[in-house]
Amino acid sequence: MSLSRREFLQMLAVAGAAGTGLAGCSMDRMHRGESTTAAANHLYDMPVYGNVSLLHMTDCHAQLLPVDFREPNINIGVGHAWGRPPHLVGEHYLRYFKIPFGGRRANAFTYLDFTEASRRYGKIGGFAHLATLLKKVRGERAGRNLFLDGGDTWQGSATSMWTEGRDMIGAQKLLGVDAMTAHWEFTYGAKRVMQAINTELKGHIEFLAQNVNNSTWGSLVFPPYMMREVNGVPVAIIGQAFPYTPIANPAYMVPDWQFGIDQSNMQKTVDEVRAKGAHVVAVLSHNGMDVDLKMAHQVHGIDVILGGHTHDAEAEPVPVRNSGGTTLVFNSGSNTKFLLVLDLDVRGGRVKGYRSRLMPIFADLLPADPEMATYIEKVRAPYKDKLAEKLAVTEGLLFRRGNFNGTFDQLIVDAQLAVSGAQLALSPGFRWGTSLLPGEPITMEDVMNQTAITYPATTLDTYTGKQLKNTLEQIADNLFNKDPYYQQGGDMVRVGGFTYTMAPMRNIGHRISDLRLLNGKPIEPNKRYTVSGWADVYRPKHPGKKIWDVVTEYLRDQKTVRIDVPYTPRLTGITGNPGYAPWPTPKKTMTGT
Prior knowledge:
The protein has about 600 residues and is of the alpha/beta class. Helices cover about 30% and strands about 20% of the residues. It has a six-stranded mixed β-sheet. Strands 6-7-9-10-12-11 form a six-stranded mixed β-sheet, covered by helices on one side. Strands 18-22-16-19 form a four-stranded mixed β-sheet.
């Protein structure tokens, strides 16, 4: 089913006459003086251009319902990435992309005045609201579009973990996804992934990856690409799964599969689809944006890279010149916050022009699609009471996103310390996890949105001070290595019980210094300390409680929590870096649209 523009406006009018958007957000959460229809037109009315359209979402992390999700205030770029997308935050981001301060777009793309703006404009995303926008966009581009999913779709919520991704696969099929690639999907294990591909996806969604091989035979595990004729134009979509899956996640879950960037095979694959007549070559990538930018420089013949993994929401593409011409590099955010619409003008066997828009999905502007809303209610029904359990109330904003601790990360390490009795705590720098506004209850679902993984056991180990420093050095090099091919995405490990100094611009072995306990005493290189951790990529010899049990135990005891400013290490050598902004920042009057 698709929606014409008239049908879309009629839906908006019905929702407006009822006094609410379909998300149930009251009209006082909307832009004062702006009607539902006017706001929706401003964001979603995109004239059709050219003759082929690619639609893209990525990194939804199993969030079926509308959410709040705060963008980072620390996303530091090093080397050539200093001051360039995606390493721009807050006002630097708005100035670069010429977005007015305040208003809906500023709320969607930055952390600025996040609490106030989120209360004003309401939640964002949700598959039912995405479905409505998709039907509108596809209706306007009937017979000339493909809808592509960049992966990290089956993981990130309690229901996706409990159903092994089945709830999300059903939602993908209702959306009409044509092709996908993957990362966290692999953490269900090779057997489950192949079962899903051979049964649930079969005949509906192509699962693509040119960079995953059988470890014994070297043969490709998945189809590397698909060829489709779109409006008479031959289009090739090449899949690029997350290259570092067996390093960032447990290798024992995919023991017979070998991953990598595999740039040389990417070039061969591009050449192959061009030889088969492709007029458009698009890479559906889960590399992370910095890796995509380097690949765009190194590999020629790619028209478009539709990227994911690092959750960067870039309002416009980055054009990259290479020996074959120009490659457009996109990144489409996370948590169903955005839908990318890319219109291409393809003539004479080549892309001659493009128009694009990364559309934020405001739930109060987009009536929920009834079919998708019914499906979501059905798949969540068996778990509804458990998910709704109220554990505590937050008095401050809880979020996870940024190079260092977010406030929800801080809550997790505080829980680890309190429940385990350890001196120090380490928590992984995951970029998934939704936000909670001050005064909201923290439910079991909220905790699972931060912790729902298939290897959740906590650990209690001893580290020497030297081992702790070396661990931080290794993780920092993964994040701040000047060569993007040595970056694995994610953020710095979150820490509790100690402080440290970091120099992101230095090389490995020289970034981390001055480790101290919270009482100010230096952490001694040869002294041993007890350390609580979780999400160990190796099978722990003595697994402890599951991390969500640790956090829920802590919250039930606390009943209310308030974390105003999360811990950030003392940073040196980053003066003037537009990827860094201290938080909280002074408030400004919200204006603009």
